[in-house]
Inverse folding.
């Protein structure tokens, strides 16, 4: 089959488009999916670069589980397509079923989720014509969206769902969302709005209208020299109950400062820099919570499918590239001059 | 009356023992207490030094509310004694009642607790012959303990109680306690043990037996060069569910590293240094929670009184000084060569 293979930690040159990769076969309990579309995530880039460090050595080269990765590896976690083969134990009737993949491979509770296998990282993913996953991770979908549109959802939206669930965001609360034009950021705006929260988004000047269209009631320029003052002005004295952050970096201190006493800061990424200085006096005197969140659980994914089925979410498909141009797509992705998600499709 | 008056931010020279301070009078709704004993807390030292900074400027000079303090001020939060005067609206029958003071002056819920007045900080405290407090903050106590013993409890134990409550420590969980020989640390050992948790204490070599006597099932030397390895050895592979920290500083990263996935780190002080570097990747990939906690609520204080009445807690009275020697007592306090609490008494 055709696939893009990651040959080691490194730059885009480690991505090789090949046409002679053996077709994967569905093992017992698995299904094979003919990929319709697969979306890009920051995780793809971080994993390629080995940029996760370890808890003892922030600069060591690791994948998201902070251990070595096995190469060659086909990345691509967010997959929509149709089942074309089933392994033993899976009913033949599933062949032909249209599915969206829950990319978190684990059984058990949320402790197991922390050490799960992630499609495209610990096992091959969707930047290919075919992919295999456990049958339970391929969930039937229906409705008017294209495969490319469906592929915009899995990782970003379950990550965002879990952030909101771990921070226990309530209707009527005010949530500050950073990185609002990115995959998780735009998911946070939509999902927080759906649950009745008020969203203030931090976004680049060119993307503020889109953030408003998704439901943000106020938008602050991410290049501001005074984030605190801009947010306070935008909120007209209303306190920030929750910060949902995927950027961190130099703004971290301001984000904690903006929180009301007993406010919650939930983080699922740190594109602006993961190493931050924290004044623990701010944390304990204001009695804040800093909540780490990562990939969503199966329950979060199921909740997401419910919102999709109910037509409550707008797919944010920025651009589609052919599979062979994945390197180009990643280059476009890291430049961040788009809103929503970038998808590749194996169609010729 | 006799009292020790803090005249401004600074060193011990800012503490003045005086015999001509006007007796305070109980205002409406208040009681006046003849002080039997008052205990020392780190807050006294930090407040005297103005060492709380602000969330925008870590080095600015402030009290615990991170704002200016009004001088002269009589410090001393933890007070046991007898009511000797009541203000209007308070029944005369309370005169003569033996009481322990809940030093957190606020009404409402936990959001108000964050901006409470703290006895000895925003209003005069117990380093004096007399003190006034709202009648509801003077709670009747009985039993065999001396005033000096009772005074060991309020701030440290309600702070510890709130830490355990905010981290939702469950029976059977393993809690790592730092600063185990200090006021809050030794309170954490006792209170966590009472609720059925397993405690690993970090303490200086000279204080490990005392930590064990209080209930710690394992003790690690705080001067170790490899905290992670020592704790792992002491626990024989059992995971750390909760870290209850009042030290922070250079050990912060190791403490997060020791937590199991989805573990909780709760902090109520940072004697080892409040400015810490955090690798947010560790926080979000392990899905940790960093929980700020501060003074306990009225509910925490009531829970504490219940444990005292039930005889479940051992008072840890290290030493008693006469009031006029408060400066000496503080000097002894900061040297940390004791276990438990230091108390002053206005007896001549």
């Amino acid at each position: 089959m055709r696939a893009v293979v990651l040959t080691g930690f490194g730059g885009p040159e480690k991505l090789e488009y090949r046409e002679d990769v053996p077709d994967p076969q569905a093992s017992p309990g698995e299904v094979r999916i003919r990929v319709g579309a697969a979306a890009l995530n920051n995780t793809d880039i971080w994993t390629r670069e080995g940029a996760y460090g370890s808890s003892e050595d922030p600069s060591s080269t690791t994948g998201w589980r902070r251990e070595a990765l096995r190469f060659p590896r086909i990345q691509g976690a967010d997959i929509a397509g149709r089942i074309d083969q089933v392994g033993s134990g899976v009913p033949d009737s599933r062949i032909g079923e249209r599915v969206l993949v829950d990319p978190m491979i684990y059984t058990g509770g949320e402790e197991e989720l922390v050490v799960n296998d992630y499609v495209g990282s610990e096992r091959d993913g969707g930047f290919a014509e075919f992919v295999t996953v456990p049958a339970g991770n391929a969930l039937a979908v229906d409705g008017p969206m294209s495969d490319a549109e469906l592929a915009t959802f899995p990782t970003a939206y379950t990550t965002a769902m879990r952030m909101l669930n771990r921070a226990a965001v309530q209707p009527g609360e005010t949530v500050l969302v950073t990185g609002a034009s990115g995959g998780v950021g735009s998911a946070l705006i939509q999902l927080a709005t759906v649950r009745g929260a008020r969203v203030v988004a931090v976004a680049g000047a060119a993307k503020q209208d889109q953030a408003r269209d998704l439901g943000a009631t106020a938008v602050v320029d991410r290049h501001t020299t005074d984030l605190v003052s801009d947010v306070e002005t935008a909120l007209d004295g209303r306190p920030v109950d929750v910060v949902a952050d995927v950027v961190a970096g130099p703004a971290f201190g301001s984000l904690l400062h903006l929180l009301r006493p007993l406010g919650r800061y939930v983080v699922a990424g740190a594109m602006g820099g993961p190493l931050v200085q924290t004044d623990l006096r701010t944390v304990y005197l204001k009695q804040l919570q800093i909540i780490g969140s990562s990939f969503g659980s199966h329950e979060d994914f199921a909740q997401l499918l419910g919102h999709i089925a109910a037509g409550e979410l707008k797919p944010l498909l920025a651009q589609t590239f052919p599979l062979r141009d994945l390197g180009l797509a990643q280059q476009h992705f890291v430049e961040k001059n788009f809103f929503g998600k970038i998808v590749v499709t194996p169609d010729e």
User: Anything to note?
Assistant: The mean pLDDT of chain B is 93. The two ends of chain B are 13 Å apart (CA to CA). Chain B touches chain A through 47 residues (CB under 8 Å). The domain at 156-292 of chain B is CATH 3.40.50.720 (Rossmann fold).
